[in-house]
Design brief:
By secondary structure, the chain is α/β, with parallel strands linked by helices. The chain has helices spanning about 10-20, 40-55, 75-85, 100-110, 120-125, 155-165, 195-210, 235-240, 255-265, 275-285, 305-310, 345-350, 445-450, 490-495, 525-530; strands at about 25-30, 35-40, 65-70, 90, 110-115, 135-140, 155, 175-180, 190-195, 220-225, 245-250, 270, 295, 315-320, 330, 355, 360-365, 380-390, 410-420, 425-430, 435, 440, 455-465, 470-480, 505-510. The protein has three domains: about 10-25 and about 40-215 and about 225-240, ANL, N-terminal domain (Rossmann fold, 3-Layer(aba) Sandwich); about 360-430, Luciferase, Domain 3 (Luciferase, domain 3); about 435-530, ANL, C-terminal domain (GMP Synthetase, Chain A, domain 3, 2-Layer Sandwich). The protein is about 25% helix and about 25% strand. Helix 1 crosses helix 8 (about 235-240) and helix 2 crosses helix 6. The termini are far apart. It binds adenosine-5'-diphosphate. Adenosine-5'-diphosphate binds next to strand 14, strand 19 and strand 20.
Length: about 550
């Protein structure tokens, strides 16, 4: 017997139409150097349909790649929908990648047009001749003042939009590509992930669920996580689907500007990587605000950071785990029912975990070579593998040199994790960041968390450095809070009660800043290179 229900394709134009029909008066706000610009979903919908017309006028192929090079803004949201809703494929270029990587991904994706914010035009334009398929560069005025050369490839977003006619959106095949994103390459060359309409709609529903971001018409959502990185964690689709107002920081990414925007615009939900919240904390502490949730992920969320928010801002951070390859949101650190009334310390420990997979994602930990399942006892570790309808099956560049799926159909994450009896995930490390000491593994993440709980420490990153006897030993690179001084002994004394004796770093280096990747994560690759020749004291 077969079910007798309707079966309509899960396509992104359904999200668009829902927002257009029901939330026309809901605000969309974009910040800029001259202050905020206010609009509504109604205006956005009209402009997005006309942007579809612009893509036709420019002669972009039926499934042509539409590149973007810009900050989080209303125009970026127009592109997020106009491209896939006309059958094209949105390709968000990460504005902080190295020039060679940008050239590589634009050519590999075969971008036909790139929409560029004027404030970052100067980063983009020198590369245009290396991008062999790019025929058009459309400049979006975001208050930037870059000089624009006289070149027939360049046109102005608003001029094109004013001249264009609105188009109908009707995508019938849910398995068509909707957008693509190359991983930022914390651990190697950028690898292309291609999302379908179906995977995006399902991910949107998951991101909307209360165990994830729980967005609704009552929310004012501010994605700080860039739209050029891992789809702004799905917020750009989830907010229109829920009718949540949107606040975009635009190019105003300085911590103080972010904190002011949260306060002034009554933001209730926001999300970004830990280094963002680290910076914003002093500007938000003690202020009156409407926040109900701060989502955070992309790298381990230090317990000390989440607790500092609880104490100084009045709400802890919600940790989420995911990857570009998982659309990206795959798990969240919600408090299980039995711990709703637990003491603060217990709750803080739960929040320090990647947490429970969202409904729709399954997770397992296995021996990476034999695929032997590891016990869920919170001690045994293994490679974290996931499966679900918004997890990637393969990369767009098979020459990436990485096999994404196992023979039995699970996605390899490259993360090492333990799982507790109820399947809550604790990320121990990235495979590449684990420190191998005398045949045993040391988790750099655990050490960093322990060091960052020292009151004088602002940031800490731990990397393995070569050791003649033990292969590798941990080196702690510590950034002290402004005005503080500390000694190596002080840091090590602090660690002694917190970690196994053989985990204690062999040395502590005080540095001015931890090098960051293009999306603000600690760049262990750069730290390892910096300390490659490091001589440990015997
Ligand atoms: P990359 O950092 O490789 O450029 P992504 O932004 O897709 O690409 O990052 C995915 C990776 O980020 C995960 O594999 C994991 O190592 C790390 N990560 C994401 N969320 C968390 C988290 N909550 N805790 C620890 N690590 C995380």
């Amino acid at each position: 017997m077969r079910g007798l229900m309707q079966d309509s394709p899960l396509t992104i134009d359904t999200i668009f139409r829902h927002a257009e029909q029901h939330y026309g008066d809901v605000p969309i706000i974009t910040n800029g150097p001259k202050g905020v610009t206010r609009s509504t979903y109604g205006e956005w919908a009209d402009r997005t349909r006309r942007l579809g017309g612009v893509l036709d006028t420019l002669g972009i192929s039926a499934d042509g790649r539409v590149g973007t090079f810009g900050w989080n803004s209303q125009r970026h949201l127009e592109l997020y929908f106009a491209a896939p809703c006309t059958g094209r494929v949105l390709h968000t270029l990460n504005i902080r990648l190295f020039p060679e990587q940008l050239t590589y991904i634009a050519n590999h994706a075969e971008d036909e047009v790139v929409f560029v914010d004027r404030s970052v035009f100067g980063l983009f334009w020198p590369l245009v001749d290396t991008m062999t398929t790019v025929r058009h560069v459309v400049v979006m005025e975001d208050g930037g003042d870059a000089e624009l050369p006289d070149d027939p490839r360049i046109s102005d977003y608003e001029t094109l939009l004013a001249a264009a006619s609105p188009v109908d959106f009707d995508v019938r095949d849910e398995n068509l590509a909707a957008s693509m994103c190359y991983t930022s390459g914390t651990t190697g060359n950028p690898k292309g992930v291609v999302y379908s309409h179906r995977s995006t709609v399902l991910h949107t529903m998951a991101a909307l669920s209360p165990n994830a971001f729980g967005l609704s018409v009552r929310d004012v959502a501010m994605p700080v996580v860039p739209m050029f990185h891992a789809n702004a964690w799905g917020i750009a689709q989830a907010a229109p689907a829920a009718g949540a107002a949107l606040v975009f920081p635009g190019p105003m990414m300085q911590p103080e500007a972010l904190a002011n925007l949260i306060v002034d615009e009554g933001v209730t939900f926001t999300a970004g990587v830990p280094t963002i919240w680290q910076g914003v904390l002093p500007f938000l502490a003690g202020k009156e605000h409407q926040l109900r949730e701060i989502g955070c992920g992309g790298s381990a969320v230090p317990k000390a950071l989440s607790e500092a928010y609880r104490e100084q801002v009045g709400l802890p951070i919600l940790q989420a785990w995911g990857m570009t390859e998982t659309s990206p949101v795959a798990s969240s650190g919600v408090l299980p029912r039995r711990l709703q009334d637990a003491d603060d310390e217990t709750k803080a420990n739960v929040r320090a975990r990647a947490g429970i997979p969202l409904f729709g994602v399954e997770a397992r930990i296995v021996d990476a070579d034999t695929l032997e399942p590891q016990p869920w006892d919170d001690t045994a570790t293994g490679e974290l593998q996931v499966r679900g309808n918004w997890c990637a099956k393969e990369y767009y560049n098979p020459d990436a040199g990485v096999e994404l799926s196992t023979a039995d159909g699970w996605m390899k994450t490259g993360d090492v994790a333990a799982m507790s009896a109820d399947g809550s995930i604790r990320i121990a490390d990235r495979t590449k960041d684990l420190i191998k000491s005398g045949g045993e593994w040391i988790s750099s993440v655990d050490l960093e968390n322990a060091i960052m709980s020292h009151p004088k420490v602002a940031e800490a990153a731990v990397v393995g450095v070569p050791h003649p006897k033990w292969d590798e030993r941990p080196l702690a690179c510590v950034v002290l809070k402004q005005g503080e001084t500390a000694t190596e002994e002080e840091i090590l004394e602090h660690l002694k009660p917190l970690v196994a004796k053989w985990w204690l770093p062999d040395a502590v280096e005080f540095i001015d800043e931890v090098p960051k990747t293009s999306v603000g994560k600690f760049s262990k690759k750069d730290l390892r290179a910096k300390f490659a020749e490091y001589e440990l004291k015997a």
